Amino acid sequence: MNWKVLRTEEDYQVAITRTLNIFHAADGTPEAEELALLLLLVKDYEDKHIRLPDLDIIEVIKLKMTERGIKAKDLEQVIGSKGHVSSVLSGRRELTLKMAQRLRQYFQLPAEMFLKAS
User: Fold this and answer.
1) Which terminus, N or C, of the chain has the lesser number of Cβ atoms within 10 Å?
2) How far is Cα 79 from Cα 61, in angstroms, rounded to an integer?
3) What is the mean pLDDT of residues 39-62?
4) CATH 3.30.70.890 fits 57-114, yes or no
5) Which residues neighbour 91 within 8 Å (Cβ) at sequence distance 6 or greater?
6) If we measure between CA atoms, which residue out of 1, 45, 49 comes closest to residue 21?
7) Are 103 and 95 in contact (CB under 8 A)?
8) Using 50, 70 and 90 to split pLDDT, how confident is the model at 54?
């Protein structure tokens, strides 16, 4: 198929289906070349048309705590006192830069997650 810029949801879905069908194409094959082109086209379409919701970093931290079986008291070494941990997790207190750096490292999260869009 001769691929062109993806302009509609239908074009996008066809490209995604084809991408999945040839995803494990061997290097140097025509399918590998097609896959490389499709990945560019799909990324371009997604960048223009798909917006992921902004994540609340406190909700992400709570989810990570649940995944790891971590209690609020376990974050005292990362955030500070019991009161600080409680205030941050309840949203009564903003994260400081130092807290964000420590939490990012502790949970191995991308730094971008701590930035809020204006």
Assistant:
1) C
2) 12
3) 91
4) no
5) 58
6) 1
7) yes
8) confident
